[in-house]
Structures are given as C-alpha cells and as structure tokens.
Recover the amino acids of this structure.
C-alpha cells in the first residue's frame, strides 16, 4: 500500500471539472444501477456545471481532492450542519460528509483515509467533535471503508416502498 504521504489533499478549483465529473460519474453510476427509481444516471449537463461552480463559491461546504502525482483520484464534499435543540434532541453541530468517492484504480490505497483525516482536522479546528457520514446498504465497500476509518453505526434508516 502506498504511503499516505504520496497523497496530497487540496481544495477543488476551476479546471477540475473533468476530474470531479469522472469521480462523480463512477459513484453515481453505482448508485443508479442499485437504486434506479431513486438515483439519476450521471449526465454532464447544466446541473453538474452549476453544482460544481456553486460548490466552489459556497462558504457552507468544501470540496477537496486527493491527488496522486498531481492528478485528482478521490473527492470529498463536506459541510457544517447545525441542529437546534428540540423536544427530543440536544442542540449540536457536526461536520457532515455529503460525498466521498475514490476512483476504482485507487481504492484501498488510503485515499479515503487521507480525505477523512483532513475532514476530522477541519472539524477539530472549528471546535466540532462529530463527523457524520452515511451510505446506502448495497454499498458494502463504503461500509467497510468507513468502519476502517473509525466510524461507528449509530442509526439505521428503513424504507417501505408502497
């Protein structure tokens, strides 16, 4: 396994659209094949371009890339979520990972670990002690990756199709 030092983490920037779309396409196709009534098949259209530019300009979320030899091979999109106190729950802030994907050829080479470590450090700098992520039940590889990174199951969501 290559050392984590060979992985450089950096923010996404203009000019990264092709690499980001390639990573998005790979993971979105996996989801669309498993849950075609829920997920849209990937298309590089106005929605993707708008998403990419809005994400770069957003103060509420960060899109970071793991690069090898200067080439993006993984991405992570994360944001800070604030939840007020309710009758049932305590108020809390957490960093939530909205998307994390690694190119197939670079999986199990610590790219996801490097991205997650970066997010954990960002959370700590903001005084936040919780990082959340979710995955679909069909994605055994994601579940295993997140478990190796220290995530523990706290809640399960069930769905009933009618």
């Amino acid at each position: 396994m290559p050392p984590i030092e060979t992985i450089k983490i950096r923010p996404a920037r203009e000019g990264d659209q092709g690499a980001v779309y390639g990573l998005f396409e790979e993971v979105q196709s996996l989801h669309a094949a498993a849950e075609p009534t829920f997920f849209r098949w990937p298309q590089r259209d106005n929605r993707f371009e708008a998403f990419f530019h809005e994400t770069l300009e957003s103060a509420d979320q960060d899109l970071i890339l793991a690069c090898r030899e200067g080439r993006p091979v993984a991405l992570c999109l994360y944001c800070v979520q604030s939840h007020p106190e309710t009758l049932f729950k305590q108020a809390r802030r957490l960093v939530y990972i909205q998307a994390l994907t690694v190119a197939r050829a670079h999986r199990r080479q610590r790219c996801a670990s490097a991205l997650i470590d970066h997010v954990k450090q960002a959370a700590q700098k903001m005084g936040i002690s919780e990082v959340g992520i979710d995955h679909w039940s069909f994605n055994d590889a994601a579940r295993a990756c997140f478990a190796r990174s220290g995530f523990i199951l706290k809640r399960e969501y069930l769905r009933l199709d009618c």
